[in-house]
Amino acid sequence: MFEVTRHEEMAQGSIIRLDLIAPQIAAKAKPGQFVIIRANEFGERIPLTIADSDPYSGIITIIFQIVGKSTALLRAFKAGDYIKDVAGPLGRPVEVDKVGTAVVVGGGTGIAILHHVTKAVKEAGNSIIGILGARSKDYIIMEDEMRLLCDEMVITTDDGSYGIQGFVTAPLQEYLDERFDIKLVYAIGPIIMMKNVCNLTRKYNIKTMVSLNPIMVDGTGMCGGCRVSVGGKTSFCCCDGPDFDGHAVDFDELEKRNNMYLKKEKDALLFSIR
Ligand code: NAD
Ligand code: FES
Question: Is the pLDDT of residue 271 over 70?
């Protein structure tokens, strides 16, 4: 059992932050890794990337969007409640070299994962330009935490309610046109965002890493549920990833596979709140 020590609602209650006491996971967790959670003994297994971890306090942070029945169930957990199972850390940690200047691009809920990854990019000694995008001001999360890690920061919103109006790809293109010191881009967010970031950086021949979130079941390489095509070969996101060279990822296939159960997830959510 894992005690919740903090429950915070962000983005008008559509994104939830939970801090959990998980000392064994916190002692080992590295940026980029994830956990698999079962809220209670009847709950399904949900993979959630670790947004932060502190080996000294033994606390890990998870941040998730409410998309189906299981994430809605997890939302009900408040400080003092106990989550049944948390397995991890799973997946390969982020591997970042000192390259000079890196751009980290986060879209919507993906910003939560980007935060932990940005810590690793910083620790490797890089100078960091952050570009955070969301549909409107209320959906920009972890801005203060990201500002602490980034040397420069640009915010975009789709509706122009904060920062520059438009998608994250517009300021990214400006940076790529003007700055020749950028050697790495890290993009985490919706599939269409990561795909468009990669299409852009490919033209500039700049290495681009993405964090993928396909459907997962066991999280240990046994079921094949999380398979993704990278460079024309099948990889398993849970044990070969979740980070991959974005220029080699087949995003169209990933999008199709991820959409397979969308209707079922929505129906299960509706049924559970009736
Ligand atoms: P969203 O749809 O509101 O988009 C967030 C930002 O992404 C936008 O503000 C924009 O800047 C950028 N974006 C969107 N469409 C784009 C396009 N066509 N071209 C360029 N940029 C574009 O995001 P949301 O609702 O918070 O995202 C939810 C999605 O993100 C879900 O599908 C979820 O599965 C996914 N997600 C992925 C990860 C991951 O590990 N990659 C993590 C969390 C969430
Ligand atoms: Fe089963 Fe990756 S989740 S193989």
Answer: no
